[in-house]
Amino acid sequence: MNLHKCTIDNISDLISIGRETYYDTFYAMNSAETMQKYLDEAFDQKKIESELKNPKSSFYLLYDGDSPAAYMKVNLPPAQSDLNDRDSLELERIYVKKEYKGRGFGRQLLEQAISIAKEEKCRYLWLGVWEKNEKALEFYTKMGFVKFGSHSFRMGDEIQNDFVMKITL
Question: Which of 166, 168, 169, 156 is nearest to 26 (CA)?
Answer without folding.
Answer: 156
